[in-house]
Amino acid sequence: MASRRIVGALRILLLLTGAGGGGAVSADGVADAALDRWLDAQAGLTSWKSEFVQTRHLEALTQPLSAPGTVWFVAPDRFRWELGRPVRSIALRDGSNLWMLSPPLKRAERYELATVAQGPMKDALTLLDSGFPRNGAEFRKRFELLQFSGTNATWMFRLRPRSLATRRLLPALSLEVRTNDLALVASELEFSDGSRMRNDFTGSERNPSIPPDTFAPVLDPGWKITTPAAPR
Amino acid sequence: MLRFRWPWVLVALLIVAGLARLRLDTEVLHLLPGDLPAVRGLLLQQRYFAPARGLMITVQGEDPDRVSRAAEAVASALGGRSDLAREVRWRPPWREHPEDALENLAWLWLQQPPGSVRDLVQRLQPGRLEDGLQSARERLATSLDPMDLAREAYDPLGLTRIPGAEGVGGGFEEGTGLFANPDGTFRVVFVEPARSELNYRDVASWLDSVRAVARDSVSAAGMAGGEVRMGFTGSPAFVAEISAGMERDLKNSVLSTVVLIALLFWMAHRTWRPLGWLLVSLGLILVVTLALGGLLFGTLNVLSVGFAAVLLGLAVDYGLVGYQEAAASPGSTPEQVRREVSRGVWYSAGTTAGTFLLLGFTGLPGLARLGQLTALGLLVGAVVMLYVFLPRVCPVVNAGTAGAGPDGVVPVRTRGSRSLWPTAILVAGVGLLLAWRGIPVLTTGDDPLRPRSSSAYAAMDELKAGLGRAREPLRLLFRGPDLDAVSRQLDAARATLAQARERGTVGTFDLPDGFWPRPDHASENAPSVRDLVLRGPRLRAAVLEAGFKSNAVEVADGLLRAWPKLVASGGSQWPSNATARWLTGQFVSRAENGDWLALGAVSSGPEGIPGEALGGLPDSVLVSSWDTLSQVLVGHVKRRITVLSILIAAALVGCLWMAFRRWREVLLSLGALFLSFALLLAAMAAVHGSWNLLSLVAIPLLLGTSVDSTIHIQLALRRHRGDGRAVWRTTGRALLLCAAANIAGFGSLAWSSNLGLASLDVVCAVGVACVFVVCAGLLPAWWRAAGGVGRERPESGPPSALYGPGLWKLGGIIARILPDGVASWLARAGAALYRLTRPDRVAVVTANLRPVVGHEPGIAERAARDNFRQFALKLVDLWRQEAGVSFEERVRPGGGWEQFSSARSGGRGVLLVTPHLGNWELGTVLLKREGVRPLVLTAPEPGGRFTELRAAARARQGVDTLVVGEDPFAFVEVIRRLQDGGMVALLLDRPPEATAVSVEFLGLPFRASVAVAELARASGAAVLPVYIVREGTGYRAEALEPLAYDRRALGSRDERVAFTGRILRAFEPAVRQFPDQWFHFVPVWHPGESSERSGSSSS
Question: How far apart are CA B747 and CA B752, in angstroms?
Answer without folding.
Answer: 9
